[in-house]
Amino acid sequence: MIDIILADDHAMLREGLRRKFDDMTEFHVVGEAGSAAELMTLLPLSPHPVILLDIKLPDESGLRLIPRIKKQTPRSRVIILTMFNHVRYLQQAIEVGADGFVVKGAPFAELIKAVHEVVNHRIYVCSEMVPHLATHIHRPSKGSALEGLSDREFEVLTLLTSGLTPQEVGERLGINSKTVGTYRHRLMEKLELDSTADLVRFALENGIIS
Q1: pLDDT of res. 120
Q2: I need a surface site. Which of 7, 46, 59, 63 has the fewest CB within 10 A?
Q3: Same CATH fold, 145-205 and 2-135?
Q4: pTM of the model
Q5: How far is CA 178 from CA 53, 169, 173, 186, 208, in A?
């Protein structure tokens, strides 16, 4: 039996996934977490869980959480389950130790396939991301505006254009709203944009948000 831990701040999504997994005898959902802190308390419940982890948790980025998870439970497998389908998130996830990456719009059957793959020590990338990854690999990186952004700038860009206020972005990242404003100004300079509306349009055009 495969132990599953669901880590997402949307209770409705967790409940839906739990019901689906509960209908299958090969899976056992050992716990649900709505935050990074809750997730860390669940890790002792299983020596080798498959953790379905959202990138955006209210108290910490899922990406920054992965090394802590791997340190506490080295036999765990982590699948990033996210609404963000930009290839940069995929690259960052793999770099920090994620075993799989699935976009939330994917069919449940693909999530099951991802679980089976990571349990067998194989990296899994959902089918929706494969064309993006191939395009990114074959596209020259020079001249790409996104390539000039730091990881933190990219995080701020994603959160701001997802509809969060500077204060909410600051709370997510552990910085104050004034610092968020500094990042926003720096983003507009680097991307040669004039307003938040331009940032949102840029994010849509580049697949950062949908």
Answers
A1: 93
A2: 59
A3: no
A4: 0.73
A5: 29, 11, 13, 12, 23
Instruction: Fold for 2-135, please state it.
Output: Rossmann fold (3.40.50)
The answer to whether 155 touches 173, Cβ cutoff 8 Å, is yes
Average pLDDT over residues 176-205: 87
DSSP sequence for 79-97? EEEES---HHHHHHHHHTT
| Least confident segment among 88-92, 140-144, 194-198, 205-209 | 140-144
The pLDDT of residue 132 is 62
User: Is-contact 86 206, C-beta < 8 A?
Assistant: yes
- The owner of tokens 């206020």 is 165
Domain residue spans in the chain? 2-135, 145-205
Q: Work out the mean pLDDT of the chain and round it to a whole number.
A: 88
Longest dimension (CA), the chain: 54
